[in-house]
């Protein structure tokens, strides 16, 4: 029986834990995803590599100082157990020299690049490829979501506050909590002050 929900895989894997990303400054700046976090996520969805999903590289092509690799990702549909009708295919490319030296990892990097692109076509880390990480509000929501549950819960209380009484209650909850990480307390304090400014401006309008 075929599952008609065409986004059944996409919806499971489209959001990204910001701790698994890295910001690259050159070429205008962009966000990259840690490849092993993608492999872990794919394994959670499809099963062990080589059983529930796997990939095959074609012979690499060397041209104009670059290596080009074609990756073919195969998987079993987690809803039906059926093998995908056609593999997801994409290419990765890397230069053979970096900073005047031969890059011994160029072939591996090209393969990783191709694998990441294939998984992106299935929806993995789609929020990055859709540019959502350029939106600071979206990025903050993802940081809150993937923080430890208690921090995420308290951040949600702050965000849901519609008046100063509710906000003060959330502040009291933070004070009474067992959060030990100073960075988490600073994060919540920052959200508290931002929400306080928002409510103050709203009441003054």
> Which oligomeric form is depicted?
single chain
Could you tell me how far the N terminus lies from the C terminus, measured between alpha carbons in angstroms?
Answer: 57 Å
Helix and strand composition category: alpha+beta
Q: Helices and strands, in N-to-C order?
A: HEEHEEEEEEHHHHHH
What is the beta-strand fraction?
15-25%
Low-confidence stretches: none
Q: Sheet bearing the most strands, described?
A: 4 strands, antiparallel
**Would you report the number of β strands?**
8
Rg of Cα set: 22 Å
Overall average residue pLDDT: 90
Tally of contiguous helical segments: 8
Q: Estimate the helix proportion, in percent.
A: 40-55%
Shape: elongated
Quickly list its features.
205 residues, alpha+beta, 4-stranded antiparallel sheet, two-stranded antiparallel sheet, 8 helices
Topology at a glance:
Elements: H1 10-13, E1 21-24, E2 30-33, H2 35-46, E3 53-57, E4 61-63, E5 66-75, E6 88-95, E7 97-98, E8 101-102, H3 106-121, H4 126-129, H5 136-146, H6 149-160, H7 164-176, H8 182-204
Helix pairs in contact: 6-7, 6-8, 7-8
Walk me through this protein's architecture.
The model has no long low-confidence stretch (mean pLDDT 90). The N and C termini lie far apart (57 Å). The chain contains eight helices and eight strands. It is an alpha+beta fold. Helix content is 46%, strand content 19%.
Q: Nutshell version of this structure?
A:
With 205 residues, the protein is α+β, with helices and mostly antiparallel strands. It is built from eight helices and eight strands. It is elongated, with a radius of gyration of 22 Å.
């Amino acid at each position: 029986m075929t599952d008609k929900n065409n986004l059944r895989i996409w919806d499971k894997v489209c959001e990204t834990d910001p701790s698994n990303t890295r910001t690259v400054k050159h070429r205008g700046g962009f966000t990259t995803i840690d490849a092993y976090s993608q492999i872990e996520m794919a394994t959670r969805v499809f099963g062990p590599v080589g059983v529930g999903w796997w990939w095959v590289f074609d012979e690499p092509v060397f041209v104009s100082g670059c290596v080009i690799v074609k990756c073919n990702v195969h998987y079993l549909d987690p809803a039906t157990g059926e093998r995908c009708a056609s593999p997801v295919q994409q290419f990765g490319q890397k230069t053979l020299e970096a900073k005047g030296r031969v890059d011994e990892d160029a072939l591996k990097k090209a393969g990783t690049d191709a694998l990441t692109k294939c998984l992106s076509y299935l929806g993995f880390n789609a929020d990055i490829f859709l540019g959502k990480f350029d939106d600071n509000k979206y990025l903050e929501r993802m940081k809150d979501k993937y923080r430890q549950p208690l921090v995420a819960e308290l951040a949600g209380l702050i965000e849901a506050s519609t008046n100063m009484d509710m906000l003060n209650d959330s502040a009291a909850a933070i004070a009474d909590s067992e959060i030990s990480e100073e960075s988490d307390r600073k994060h919540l304090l920052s959200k508290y002050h931002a929400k306080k400014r928002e409510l103050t401006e709203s009441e003054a309008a």
